[in-house]
Amino acid sequence: MMKYDAVIIGSGLGGLQCGYILAKSGLRVCILEQNALIGGCLQSFKRGKNTFDTGFHYIGGLDEEQPLHQIFRYFNLLNLPWQRLDNDCFDEITIYGKRYSFANGHANFVETLSKEFPHQKENLLLYSQKLQEIGRSLFDNFKSENYNFFESPYFTQSAKEFLDATIDDERLKAVLTGASLKMQLDEHLPLYIFAQINNSFIESAWRIKGGGLQIAESLANDIRQMGGDIFTQQKVTTLVEEEGKVTKAIVNNGEAEFEADFFISNAHPVRTNEWLEESKEIRKVYRKRIINTPNSFGMFTVNLQLKENCIRYRNCNQYIYETEDIWNLFDKKNDNKSLLISYQVPKKGEFTQNIDLLMPMRWSEVEKWLGTRIMQRDDAYESLKKEKAEICIRLASKHIEGLEASIEKVYTSTPLTYHDYTGTYCGAAFGTQKDNTKLLQTILPVRTPISNLYQTGQNINLHGILGVSITSLLTCAEIVGMDHIKEQVGI
User: Fold this and answer.
1) Inter-residue contact 470 to 138 (CB < 8 Å)
2) Statement: the pTM of the whole predicted model exceeds 0.90
3) Half-sphere exposure of 146 toward its Cβ, with a 13 Å CA cutoff?
4) Is it the case that residue 73 has pLDDT exceeding 70?
5) For the chain, which terminal residue's Cβ has fewer other Cβ atoms within 10 angstroms, N or C?
């Protein structure tokens, strides 16, 4: 039996950040990770000399005086090998072969798109102003305890309603939503989520040279230096509750026990509830709410290892669409018509070694293999992956000259892969799906019905690097106090 001030379950970004905050605040911290590697969706994997990312590809808002810069300064992450993407085209949106550039800086962003849509310049200014307005509200989350941010019109209005009211050119609407393969875009997506994500990338956009795992490793190293412990291959199977509080976490069906005063779950809320089957504090209505919360779609990913000196590195992301109906990518008519292309920063020179292709994928396409073992799935699963990879490569090849002839090796993953390797429930790329008409059902609080058990990660409040970072601070504020968090981070 080991005793800590706080036990954190899951070593994804949210879990590691909570571990860092609490350790820096003087608590004795332990992080339990069920897999052999830490990092969750920050994990990277190596094949030969090449490193591939899993869920992390780029971030926004890291420039000085921007929110993520302030947050990453606190987490000691600014010294990693960040590379800023092209100022005049950090994202390239291609719809039916026509290319449009997203530029960094709001004035530059508006001016660049106005060249393609001169009749929409005033509307683009209104669009930009609203994104900036919502972006400036990010730290309103840290106002007084009586402040209920989720009652604001930023949450109750949908992104689609805002765009329909602001932009009256259908192609421009499609372009402005074209970088939305990094969120669950549907008609009920709250404007706040759409705006915060897009605003941060318009402010500045960055990749990391060498893989996103460096973020996890940096946090983990600092946690250990501050006296915290991180244990891998420790799968929580039960949380023991006594007199309305969690007293210990049991791992690997009784192999070890970890006691603490506070517990934080970085896992999906459904998983957390499964560990509390005997709880007297969690009522049926709460369990039902958690089970019925919809999850976002997953991603099929093709990691391409390339021959040397064949494909020039592009310091931007490419979003490819063979449809204008970007709000309904899962309609049958739109299947396999959207793709995100991400280039790995070269170790040296002007040619990239790896390219990642990401295409939205339904959980239902792989659900029947749930419970089968990695590397031991049947021929039908392998055929599905091969067919999907060929579709992605054919689509990418229309936009990257010489791609097919430059491929050395192909690696693939499905939402089931993410489910198995990172513990991501249903392989959901962006956690639970948020709904502006059902905020109380779909935006889950950091508190649980159990007084010393808290939640964090992409399923709570907001997803993405910025959203998870904000949620980590809010989670830990429940333990060490909001004033302490604001003082530490400089909010």
Assistant:
1) yes
2) yes
3) 0
4) yes
5) N
